[in-house]
Amino acid sequence: MRFNKKYVPLIVGVAIAAGIFIGEKLNFTDTSDRLFSVNSKKDKLNRLIDYIDYEYVDDVNTDSIVDVTVNGILDNLDPHSVYIPKEDMERVADNMKGDFVGIGINFYTYKDTITVIKTVEGGPSEKVGIKGGDRILFANQDTVYGKNLNNAEVIKKLKGPIHSKVTLGVYRKGESQLLNFTVKRDHVPIKSVDAAYKLNEALGYIKINRFAESTYNEFKKELTTLQKQGMTELVLDLRGNPGGFLGVAERIVDEFLKDGKLILFTKNKRGNIKKSFATKRGDFETGKLYVLIDENSASASEVIAGALQDNDKGTIVGRRSYGKGLVQREMDLGDGSAVRLTVSRYYTPTGRSIQRAYKNGSKDYYDEYFERIESGELIDEEKIQVADSLKFKTPKGKVVYGGGGIIPDVFVPIDKGMQNETIMFLERRGFISNFVFEYLDENRHAYDSVSRDAFINDFELNDDIVVAFESYLREKTDSNITFVAYNNEIKQYIKATLANQLYGNGAYYEVINKFDVMIEEVLTLSKAP
Q1: Fold match flag (99-189 vs 193-329+341-414)
Q2: Which whole number is the average pLDDT over 288-308?
Q3: Which residue ranges does the record assign to the PDZ domain (predicted)?
Q4: Where are the beta strands (DSSP E) in 1-146?
Q5: For residue 25, which of 307, 339, 246 has the smallest C-alpha distance?
Q6: How many CA atoms lie within 13 A of 373 on its CB side?
Q7: What sign has the CA pseudo-torsion 503, 239, 330, 218?
Q8: pLDDT, tens digit, 9 for 90 and up, residues 31-77
Q9: Which of 16, 41, 431, 476 has its CB 3.0 to 4.6 Å from that of 426, i.e. a possible disulfide?
């Protein structure tokens, strides 16, 4: 919300007292005599807000002022203490819980119509026969298409209480009449394990995208399946994983470390130390392990990499991780909003803190991340800056460093082809996914007889699809992007996205990993004596 400049002094005034407001909502003990004139600072903010509500000459949205003030306070603490407004809580909670109640589709608004990209495997829509390419026109006879289509409104109509039903009117190409499907809403998983499969007879692969409540159970299920298939070595891919629940990361580490090994310890402002140790329940304590990390592996991902590295378990492969060593706890603010407040630091078993410095504020903190990229450290490991004062040794004498991320045991530079900035931008912004959807919308039946394995291992796209994608970009962006130097790379991303929309269930990574330089490095290491 934009504020008139004349309200700036007002906001500053509110900021002076706002910390007390947070203290009240967090249920901190107030030992004062609660006299306004003596020490009841919490009442000051309440009174000030009341004065503004009832006495101030103009109408002011005091709720918005409080939100701005809370954000301002947190900005002055550390980069990872954050405020979660009431309107965002459901989405954030669903993401970290690992599921939500809905009908289980991934959709794309195509020509003013909700069009199914694919159904969630095992979800309510798949069970009743809804398919990729279907257009949803009605939900309980309410229209859900048109130029004024609003995604938020559509989602509201599709979501609902668990086990409630919604009847969908669906147009499907090739069908002469509208199809009706009655879908019973249910828990729909938000998967945190993107892929799990075998790279070869001995080497398994598991990709985790975050650490939610459901992540350990997902991981354990896939680990057990791969072991039953004869896996003796594992690649754990944590690239791009921003973290999540610390306790979930600890449980995953426990699968690899022997009983009694230190996983990490945390320390709060009072100096209280809490240690976490491995138990007897690990099922992959003797197997060979490779952990993939990059500059976007953070927090709980770094807990895993640091715990394994400091215990001389496995090999960390990739590039220096993000450098987040702070622990947050979510605290309810009483009005549906919450704050994630940093309450302690975590340390790896050797005593390393891997948190990057933030004393100069959040802007410098995030700028330092980009400075790493500009310095060349993603290409040359000699460019990684380390401090001798932050040197530590593992039990077997390996030198490791604190002070800003986990430095891998085996460095792999960024692939300038597959990780070309333009291609990465187009993928993140959904251009490749949307193009593939529109391509499939015209050509879906051409793949009816192509099996998942045959597509992944044998199917080759020709250059025509790259030309079509270039034409699509010109139409959508008015740009003149060509892929002369990256023809093969863009074909692989298109193929991987095709695999995802046709087959799901990790097919994207099975395609893209065939051209992944870190996977190639692991395959080389795995064969080494």
Answers
A1: no
A2: 97
A3: 81-159
A4: 82-84, 99-102, 105-110, 113-119, 135-139, 142-143
A5: 339
A6: 11
A7: positive
A8: 434 333 444 667 777 788 788 888 888 887 877 777 888 888 888 88
A9: 431
Residue 136 exposed, middle or buried by CB count within 10 Å (0-12, 13-18, 19+):
buried
**Burial environment of residue 339 by CB neighbours within 10 A (0 to 12, 13 to 18, 19 or more):** buried
State the alpha helices, DSSP H only, in 117-170. 124-128, 151-158
pLDDT digits (tens, 9 = 90+) for 415-442: 999 999 999 999 999 999 999 999 999 8
Query: Hey, which residues does 265 pair with through a beta bridge?
Result: 275, 347
Could you identify the residue written with the tokens 């003013």?
Answer: 112
Mutual orientation of helices 246-254 and 215-228 as an angle, nearest 10°? 20
What CA–CA distance (Å, rounded) separates 501 from 71?
39
CB 427 within 8 A of CB 100: no
Beta strands 165-171 and 105-110: pairing type? Answer: unpaired
Angle at 401 between CA 399 and CA 403, to 5 degrees: 170
Pairing between β-strand 99-102 and β-strand 186-189 as defined by DSSP bridges: antiparallel
Q: At what angle do helices 62-75 and 8-25 cross, to 10 degrees?
A: 80
pLDDT at 364 over 90: no
Beta bridge partners of 166: 183
Provide the whole-model pTM. 0.86
Question: Could you read off the pLDDT of 174-224 as tens digits, one per residue?
Answer: 898 999 999 999 998 889 999 999 999 999 999 999 999 999 999 999 999
Instruction: Tell me how far apart the alpha carbons of residues 141 and 161 are, in angstroms, rounded to a whole number.
Output: 18
224-263 pLDDT, tens digit each: 999 999 999 999 999 999 999 999 999 999 999 999 999 9
Percentage, residues of the chain above pLDDT 90: 63
Closest residue by Cα to residue 319 from 367, 370, 256, 384: 384
The rounded distance, in Å, linking the Cα atoms of 474 and 110 is 18
Instruction: Spell out the CATH class of 99-189.
Output: mainly beta
Per-residue tokens: 1: 């919300």
Which listed CATH number (3.90.226.10, 3.40.50.2300, 3.40.718.10, 2.60.120.560) goes with 193-329+341-414? 3.90.226.10
Amino acid 465 reads I
Other beta carbons less than 10 A from residue 210's beta carbon: 24
Cβ atoms of 241 and 208 closer than 8 Å: yes
Cα separation, 244 vs 255, in Å, equals 18
As a whole number of angstroms, the distance between CA 247 and CA 222 comes to: 19
Cross-strand partners of 344: 327
Residue 254 near residue 308, CB atoms below 8 Å = no
Partners of 267 in the β-ladder: 273, 345
Phi, psi of 328, deg, nearest 5? -110, 150
Which sequence spans correspond to the domains of the chain? 5-76, 99-189, 193-329+341-414, 421-525
The pLDDT confidence band at residue 529, using thresholds 50, 70 and 90, is: low
Spatial separation of the C-alpha atoms in residues 39 and 33, rounded to whole Å: 7
Tokens of 68: 């701005």
